[in-house]
Amino acid sequence: MTTSTTNRSVIRAVPAAWHGIGFWIIAVVFTTVMAYSTVPTPLYVLYEARDGFPSFAVTFIFAAYAVGVVASLYFAGHISDWVGRRRIILISVAVEILASCLFIAWPDLPGLLVARFVNGVGVGMLTATATAHLSELRVISRSDGSADASTVSGVANLGGLGLGPLIGGLFAEFLPQPLLVPHVVFLALFVVAVIGVALVPETVVKEEIRPAYRPQKVSVPRESRAVFFAAGAAAFSSFAVFGLFTSLAPTFLVVTLHETDRLVAGAVSFSVFAAACLGQVLLSKARIRTQLNVLLALLPVGLVGLAVGAAAASLPVFAASGVVAGAGVGLLFRAALSTGASLAGAESKGEVLAALFLIAYAGLCIPVLLVGGALVIASPLAVLLVFVVLVLTAVLVSAINMRRRH
Length: 406
Description:
mainly alpha; Growth Hormone, Chain: A; 2 domains; globular; membrane
């Protein structure tokens, strides 16, 4: 996303302290929206049991979400540069309100597909916009706070994705009507979020003559294509692992590991994202080369451990390996973004990162669809083993190629 034009006199009219409060409001709203996008993770098995649709249908429900994210990123992820951050965040929360209403009013398979697509559209609008808004709010409230904003936005993004399955599991385990109550609760949270975001200072002044609309421009630096595609493969692989744990992991726990506890399913998915956040925070000051060395140690161990845990039908081994893999995946995605950003000048950085995010979210969608299709003709264990081999190969090749640059 390109740097916005800011009107300093307008910004200074709002006390810097209020920008600091607005920073945390946006961080909480960002986390809430991302959490809602993964709340259904431990609930898919309940939908399957209630409606009798096959396990592979879950992949299409999840893919509808990923398609919504990608489409929204491409067509609307950048327009807050023109119309303002706050307005787009308000619209994205309103879209999430619509998604929650669809979940409540239309809980059958077609409704789930539509609701998840709408859910993804809201997330795609929010991700880049909230990240930019957090950075600008922090710079105004504390001139040396841009790095802090990067860490907070990363934790809000991945942390929210991790909280969702845990929240869904808690609702499913301890409260009645787990396919209804979570959506009602988040609907109420989103209404409160609209009020909160409306009070946050704007950091972009709308241009008197608005530029003609165009989709997000993407570009690949011609002179650094080999390194860019290594970063793209790393981002793709990272989101493929995240996609596995936010779509099919709970079904896999039931079918292969015979674990039917919804809270356990949510906790396993949560632990993967929590480890990704923790790895990024702990190594945020380390050089990219150091982060690559650490992830090259963690990810192979974690991915192989997932295969071993599945083959041995051992939940502890599977869960622990997910944590190790999650820490490595978090570092892999951070390294991919840093590598991609380093390949472009300031005038094209937004376009290069847009291309990288689109590749990443393709990784969220395509492998899960392929896994779902494979489940029709093969056992979950066989599918998981093939998935691990392919992802591990992509991780090793991409990480080693990025390491040569740093």
